[in-house]
Amino acid sequence: MQLSKAEEQLMKYLWKLEKAFMKDLLDAFPEPKPATTTVATLLKRMTDKGFIDYTLYGKSREYYPLVKKTEYFSKHVNGLIKNFFNDSASQFASFFTSETNLSTSELEELKKIVDQELLKKQK
C-alpha cells in the first residue's frame, strides 16, 4: 500500500520527530499551514493503512510511525525498478547515472558505495 503525496509529506515529519502530537505536526509544516481538520483526516487515513498508530493520553493522541523510512523507500525504489526498468537494477543504475547529471565526485562516491557493498557480499 502506498501513501498519497500529502500523506507522504506528513509521514516525513513524523519520521523526523519519531513521536508527535497534532500540534507538533502542524508546527512542522511551513506557512501556509494546512487546516487541523486536513491533518486529522490524513492521520486517520494513515492509521487505517497501517503506516502509523497512536497512544491516547486523555483526549490527545501521540502519533508514531509503524513503518520505517528506509523500508518505505526501499519498496518504492524496488517498485520503480520492477515497473520501469524490467526488474533490472543495472538498467536502473545506468539510467540513474547517465540521466541525472551527477558530478564526477558524486559518481566516485556511488562507486565507493557499490564497492563497499561488493566487499560485504563477498564475505
What's the helix and strand layout?
Layout: H1 5-17, E1 20-21, H2 22-28, H3 36-48, E2 52-57, E3 60-65, H4 69-84, H5 89-99, H6 104-122
Antiparallel strand pairs: 1-3, 2-3
**CATH architecture title of the largest domain:** Orthogonal Bundle
With strands numbered from the N-terminus, the spatial order across the biggest sheet is 1-3-2
Which H/E pattern describes the elements?
HEHHEEHHH
Rg measurement, Å: 19 Å
Low-confidence stretches: none
Largest sheet: 3 strands, antiparallel
Describe the oligomeric state of these chains in a short phrase: single chain
CATH class category label of the largest domain = Mainly Alpha
Secondary structure class reads: mainly alpha
> Given the structure, what is the number of helices?
6
Provide a descriptive summary of the structure in words:
With 123 residues, the chain is mainly alpha-helical. The chain has two domains: 5-65, Arc Repressor Mutant, subunit A; 69-122. It has six helices and three strands. The protein has helices at 5-17, 22-28, 36-48, 69-84, 89-99, 104-122; strands at residues 20-21, 52-57, 60-65. Strands 1-3-2 form a three-stranded antiparallel beta sheet. The chain is elongated, with a radius of gyration of 19 Å. The two termini are 35 Å apart. The model has no long low-confidence stretch (mean pLDDT 92).
Tell me briefly what this model is.
The protein has six helices and three strands.
